[in-house]
Amino acid sequence: MEVVLLERVEKLGQMGDVVRVKDGFARNFLLPRSKALRATKDNLKRFEAERAQLEARNLELRKEAEGVHAKLEGQSFVVIRSASDSGHLYGSVSTRDIAGVLTDGGFSVTRTQVILDKPVKELGLTSVRVMLHPEVFSTVTINIARSAEEAEAQARGENVLARDEDEDELEAGEFFEDEELAAEAAAEAEEGADEEPQA
Questions:
Q1: Pairing relation of β-strands 76-80 and 136-145?
Q2: Taken in order 14, 19, 25, 31, is the CA torsion positive or negative?
Q3: CATH 3.10.430.100: which residues of the chain?
Q4: Which are the contacts of 90, defined by CB distance < 8 A and separation ≥ 6?
Q5: How confident is the model at residue 111 (pLDDT cuts 50, 70, 90)?
Q6: CATH of region 76-161, choose from 3.30.450.20, 3.40.50.720, 3.10.430.100, 3.30.420.10
Q7: I need a surface site. Which of 80, 85, 110, 138 has the fewest CB within 10 A?
Q8: Nearest-CA neighbor of 92 among 118, 126, 119, 110?
Q9: What DSSP letter does each residue of 2-17 carry, written as one string?
Q10: Hey, how many other C-beta atoms are within 10 angstroms of the C-beta on 61?
Q11: CA dist 50 to 15, 21, 31, 138, 157, Å?
Q12: What are the tens digits of pLDDT across the range 119-161?
């Protein structure tokens, strides 16, 4: 199906471009969201008549998005989740979760504006793109941790998983050290008990 784009669509084209797309993509995404019109003669005439208004509206929305971009770009947000000792999340952090955290942080963002390249299933810092406008993208850092203290440590650049392993080794070392001392004390006690009857 051929459509004329009413706004810039990533990986497809700019406003006013006539492009060929699959029928399902046009029917299910572009047409219902008013991102395009079928490329018929009547629709092309209508687009040309309304082009100035569409471009003015697009420019206005872009300026608003650039204002939000200036505030949002480079911000860091914390998401607290349960995870295993190896850092794997029980579940994943979705676009809905990220949009909720951004909204709680004072930015009006919907889940459709959050762009994830792959599911987030690990603890740590993750860069996420947010589409504020078809031509304006911001990058934010999502700090996924098991607690607020762990999030602060990750923000400082510490590897919290390595720290957990070190603590486990120390605990194990202390356990074995105590056991050796207990064995030595038991051996000394036995020697003392053996020597008493001989004297």
A1: parallel
A2: positive
A3: 76-161
A4: 81, 82, 83, 84
A5: very high
A6: 3.10.430.100
A7: 85
A8: 119
A9: EEEESS-BTTTB-TT-
A10: 16
A11: 12, 23, 17, 30, 52
A12: 899 999 999 999 999 889 999 999 999 998 998 988 888 887 7
- Maximum CA extent, the chain: 118
Tokens representing residue 12 in the block: 């497809």
| CB-CB contact of 77 with 141 (8 Å) | yes
The residues of the chain that CATH labels 3.40.5.10 are 2-67
**Tell me: domain 2-67, CATH 3.40.5.10, correct?**
yes
- Residue 35 is given by DSSP the state S
| Percentage of the chain exceeding pLDDT 70 | 81
